[in-house]
Amino acid sequence: MLKLIQATFCLLIGLTLQAHAQSFTWYNPMEASPSCINGRAWNEETKASYARMPERLQRNMPEKVRNFSKNAAGLSIMFITNTRNLQIKYTIEPGAQMVNMARLNQAGVDLYATNKRGKTHWIGNHMQWNWKDTITFTFRDLETNTGVYELFLPPYSTVTSLKIGCDKKAHFSFVPTSTDKPVVIYGSSIVQGASPSRPGLTWTNTLKRITGLNIVNLGFSGSCLMEPEVFDAICEIDARCFVIDPIPNSYRLTANEIATRIRYGVTQIRQRSNAPIIISESYLQADRAFHPHAEDQLRKANKALCHIVKLLQKEGVKNLFLMKSKDIKMTEDAMIEATHPNDIGCIIYANAYKKKLKKVLR
């Protein structure tokens, strides 16, 4: 009798889930015209995928940059709907779980919405997810008033397909990509999205929400070494501002290499654009009280970076700014392992850049 009750209960759950699945109308962002994929340059060339660089540029990149450029870091999709129930269904390329990354951040999606009063809120899905080959995130019993939604994609996964499901009678439309000139941010894993708890809290996504700026994330985990090929690609972008945040990876370079590569990048950008360029020192090491020498290499690299920036300014390069390490006030509770910021650290990062950009872009 107990087995019969259990079987009946499982059948009812299955029928309920099936009914929910059958009630959705599905929308594919790849079929939207014009494009609705925010957070990248070269949108026309990449519109058939969720990559951040077109294939013609990927071919010239160092292998790690090429591979990470296929991840959806900083990408988001905006849409308008009055649906009560919403489901995101997507697939990603297989990859190992990173030890310093929450699965929800590495491979999950994150949803925000702006209501009719203009207030933006985060929307939790209350663990209504399925992590099988096709991943689903389901959001139920939402307010029925029309809202402008923004779906942030996983920063450390290559998305191969994605659909958005809404109630059959609900209104739905994609919001075209922003035409505002972007703030282009080039950096390390910290820029790409390591290591808050979920995608919406990566510091570049947080910066986007708190400033309204169009942000292009060109973070490449462990691979921000300022190669000429990367700068050649970056200078193609008609940007409002360029941010170069290299030291968390480029500290491994010599002082001469840092100076040579910074000079090349600034020169290449200036040949095409007069937009402000912010070059960033690395943050101060949060655990230096008991690891006083942990940031020795970072200090040397910061010194080399500061020297070349000041030299370029003296040589007459206009609109070139330095982001000092002291301006990113990391605390001990802001890091996960003293290398990558957690949720607190990402908010600190975003607020520091908000303050800097406010001065630079006024």
From TrEMBL:
Domain called SGNH hydrolase-type esterase: residue spans: 181-358
Tagged with keyword Signal: yes
Signal peptide feature range: 1-21
UniProt entry keywords in alphabetical sequence: Hydrolase, Signal
Molecular-function GO terms, alphabetical: hydrolase activity, acting on ester bonds
Matching Pfam families: GxDLY, Lipase_GDSL_3
SGNH hydrolase-type esterase N-terminal domain location: 25-172
Protein name stated in the entry: SGNH-like hydrolase/esterase family protein
Native source species: Hoylesella shahii DSM 15611 = JCM 12083
